[in-house]
Design a protein that fits this description.
This protein has about 150 residues and is of the alpha+beta class. It is built from four helices and six strands, in the order ααββββαββα. The longest helix is centred in the first third of the chain and has 31 residues. The chain is globular and about 40 Å long.
Length: about 150
């Protein structure tokens, strides 16, 4: 009986605390939101010329890595790790970008900036992959080459 009274009093005081902390956590969440910074994706004209002059379309990575919050490491055969994946009997098509280091959300924003706002991206932080709904491999590879990866 005494335990029930203590339990009831704890619940009532806990509810009062929750209503007070609920307001403070909302203020804390507002203060933790980072401001939306406009990132400039610099594409050098020398890089565009190098891509145009390549007969096969393959270009080496830029001599200096791009100054971006993410980095994409090339595969062991020195290709960009952008793949297509077919699921559900071939009805569901995906473009997968692997081997990403750094801020995956920044890569998502970069792809939306270059490919359009209407693409659907899924970010997997555990495997460091970005999956895009649909087949966008050629466009993604072109954007990554232009950025210097």
């Amino acid at each position: 009986m005494a335990a029930a009274r203590i339990y009831r009093s704890f619940i009532s005081t806990n509810a009062a605390l929750q209503s007070q902390t609920g307001r403070s956590t909302a203020k804390a969440a507002d203060s933790l939101r980072r401001p939306k910074l406009k990132v400039i994706y610099d594409i050098k004209p020398q890089r565009l010329k190098q891509i145009e002059e390549s007969p096969s379309g393959w270009v080496p990575p830029a001599t200096e890595p791009p100054n971006l919050p993410f980095f994409i490491k090339r595969s062991k055969f020195n290709n960009l790790p952008v793949y297509t994946d077919y699921k559900r009997g071939g009805n569901y098509k995906l473009t997968v970008i692997r081997k990403i280091k750094g801020d995956l959300k920044a890569l998502d924003d970069c792809l939306r900036h270059h490919l359009g706002k209407d693409i659907y991206c899924q970010i997997n932080e555990l495997t460091s992959q970005v999956k895009i709904k649909g087949i966008h491999k050629d466009a993604v590879v072109t954007v990554l080459k232009q950025l210097g990866f």
